[in-house]
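Please check this chain.
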Amino acid sequence: MTRRAMMATAAMALLIAGSSGAAPPDPTAARIVHVTVDAARVTTPLPPIWRFFGADEPNYATLSEGRRLLVELGRLRPDNVYFRAHNLLTTGDGTPDFKWGSTNAYTERDGQPVYDWTIVDRIIDTYRAAGIHPYLEIGFMPEALSAAPNGTPYRLPWAPGVDDKGKTAGWTYPPRDQRRWADLVYRWTQHNVERYGRAEVERWYFQTWNEPNLSFYWSAGPEEFYRLHDVTVDAIRRALPTARVGGPDLAGSGGSFMDGFLKHVVTGTNYATGRTGTPTDFLSFHAKGQPVLVDGHVRMGIANQLRTADEAFGKFAAVPALAGKPVVIGENDPEGCAACPGPANAYRNGPLYASYTAASYARLWELAQRRGTRLEGALSWSYTFVGQPWFAGYRQLATNGVDLAVMNVFRLFARLGSDSVAASSDGQIPLDAVLRDGVRGPADVGVIATRGADQRAQVLLWNYHDDDVPGPDARIDLRVSGVAPAAAGRMWRVDPAHANAFGAWQAMGSPAKPTVAQIAALKRASMLVPQDVRLKDGRLNLSLPRQGVALVEF
């Protein structure tokens, strides 16, 4: 590890919490890891599940900082990136805020519906300008349609740590008039087809609401949600019979709520049509990790996130009529609240978030293959928070227009080929052990290798540990067959000393208001910079720091 890398790692640990009082392990004692890749032996397709993103606040997308980031996301896989947002039907003037946004799509005047697509069009236009397609969440309830009891506030102020248990807001209620709700959804879908074209809207994912198994988002019971879902899907399909519809985007694997939903869409009486079942083109749920503070440092909860995914995959596979349906993890994150900063979430700024992302997505691919799940997407609920302090600790991909380390891991994902090839690492923790215990003993030094249509070979490596404390580098002995023994290549790194604007900001003294020159330096520090490498007799030796990620392409 370079001196700069060691200083950045130590600074991040101090920022989060301080010392536990125990002597840290020697960060210079490298661990030898052997990695082998056979680039000629294709094993399985590798779907680009990473190309989905999302945010609570839809209106940030139309601001300059939000538009810039959308362009960067669209470049990851042109014309194949999706974005999901809450609040696309919420009543308001379109001002963005934490966990809030609005479009004013539906109001009433003299008791009659008034439709106004101006703000929501502006949002979707911005996606399309960046080459991004909507993963369209139909919600939340417009104020004029809400069945909330009289006196219920339409919106409750939100802030991290504010306890509003037992309180409800008007946007979380079912419609007071199912027919008017259905007409709103029908007209919106019809409008989208007219504005963006049938072929484009057929590519979208349509799903109803968000996490209706949580009282924060849904002030009614499961059966009322099934009704809302049926009515919504029917309205979409009446406007566009070929629309891709699904759900239910529950929090977690959903427990009995998910069981009831799956039964309803297969054998239940459809509330809108009276027929049996509800059209279902894809299935969705949310999987989250659980970081905590332990002895003054952050400990990630990768096992929680992966177990949730495995449970949901199992539920879907257990219903014969749904087994084999495409699956999207509609929110797939290390923890549950993007808009909540705090000591346990300070990892988001730097390389720990990046290495966690590499290690967790690798296991999702592995879990899906084991379960026979058609996993199409794992949506990172991370975007940006416009107008907030530098490196504030929110779950985001960029801060004030400067990309964070985790954004660069998605850029590395984008370089992976379409097919996995045979690869193994004697430092990679077995899947079952990660599901059971996380990564709490030796670090997880893992590998994915791929090959694309251009016949280039890619090797993705990571050195991940749940505990954000100093640890040894992995000294990797990489052996590659299936390419020329002296093949030239390039390597990109994301670690404390590479593609890590947070480390550069700390080295500046963590300025609250960086100068123009400092901002330029932060942008340079955030960039992935390739270095030339070459195999020697089919081998390459490299050192990978703790919480580091590297991609080598031959």
Notes: The radius of gyration is 24 Å.
